[in-house]
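Researcher: Hi, I'm a grad student and pretty new to this. My advisor asked me to get structures for two proteins we've been looking at. I'm not sure of the right format, so I'll just paste the first sequence and hope you can take it from there.
Model: That works fine. Here's the first sequence with its structure tokens right after it:
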Amino acid sequence: MTAKTAAKKSETETHETENPKQDPKDTSNRIKDPKDWTTGSEPMTGAQASYLKTLAEQAKDDEAFDPDLDKAEASQRIDALRKETGKA
């Protein structure tokens, strides 16, 4: 291996280890409590509404789905229903 090849390999390895997408130990920005979301008070997304409706039906809990939930509330309810239905 030439010096140039070795240097390039070393540089590549350094970039790979610095890439947060490849470092599963770096959870600093992945998990945030929904009540700390800056957009948590906005209406839930269409995807959240759909998933929440599906989970509520699977849990046979007609009161679990509320179309007026905000993003943070929907996320918390989805997490609870996922646990209840064994999907977590």
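Researcher: Oh nice, that was easy. Here's the second one.
Model: And its structure:
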Amino acid sequence: MAATQRIVIENCSIATVDADDTEYATGHLVVAGNRIESLGAGRAPEGLENVVRRVDATGHLVTPGLVNTHHHFYQWITRGLATDHNLFNWLVALYPTWARIDEPMVRAAAQGSLAMMARGGVTTALDHHYVFPKGSGDLSGAIIGAAREMGVRFTLARGSMDRSEKDGGLPPDFAVETLEGALAATEATVREHHDASFGAMTQVAVAPCSPFSVSTELMREGAELARRLGVRLHTHGSETVEEEQFCKELFGMGPTDYFESTGWLGEDVWMAHCVHMNDSDIAAFARTKTGVAHCPSSNARLAAGIARVPDMLAAGVPVGLGVDGTASNESGELHTELRNALLINRLGAHREAALNARQALRLGTYGGAQVLGRAQEIGSLESGKLADLVLWKLDTLAHASIADPVTALVFGAAAPVTASFVNGEQIVENSRLLHVDEDAIARSTRDEAQRLARIAAQA
């Protein structure tokens, strides 16, 4: 049997994001195979065997890889549209275009979305894909294939919609699946692609889109399906005032009560956005350990409001960060969400006490791992955990005068990523992807965006 190979990273600041927020002003980290073997202050121990690489990380901060908990990759090819709309009007404007996507478009969009995240420090990505036009090809396979090529850890939240305009929903009639078809296709995707083992590179969650695009039957039966298959559950929740009004008019209750009535609260569930939550809602999430994907830039882009993240954290609600779809967060980057989460929450009731730099970093790392049910594997730098980590360069003009590295990372300009590792394998070097051609992806996404625009214009 071949001896385990080691990578030694030295002379760096380290923010472990462990339970004690342990940090080292100058420290080292040893990777053995796909795991973190050891880390600590000063230089690495002498006499380590089978060291295949030593990294002098002077001027860098090492953190866990960022974990994205909510996204819609396909929206990469409809960026910059409906820029002055609220959520419902934005959806009505874009659904007719989205309903004409096909496999080549989705593959290109997934590549673009993943590339922007990975070169900005994301090591675990998620895509909530819920648009499956008839005859569009193997969209789930295209998305998973793009993630595999990029080398990132990935969760596909296999979404669905069965409430169209004729049923009082927002999607056009031709853009939705049947109840039976959605459940069958979701189960087939889980059985084909979900890996439940420690260190899995691909997992699948059951993810009906939202209360206003999904029937009560699909919500309830989707939850039953997920628990029968042993996978997690994801959907949108409490994003806007209009959604709350919709739920009260249609179901006679607010979103959180509706979710509870359909089996959609629990430690195996996380919701995107959760902007409009009252004290009772937050208490219900805390009691059931239901998680939240906080998407500050998208919430601002669509004028949805400011989520009560400080109150959620104080109550014990698991909270991670999400990019959200790039048609409502055109940058498509998660590391900018660290800063935006901190700044936007300081506009809320808690003002300067809302979040600090280390809390923001925790949201983007360990918090995301909690939300995805993978906190035993990723999200912090600890011996035995998977070697998913990022080296942020902080000795350039943009950050050199900020003494505290975590403050520099969160408050400062977006920091360059010198190296990013997943499972101990490097996927980014000097902010460039190692396994794919970024320029080719840029051309492909531009071409597919133009093709989609032509098709939509002719419809």
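Researcher: Is there anything I should tell my advisor about the second?
Model: You could mention this: The longest strand covers residues 6-15.
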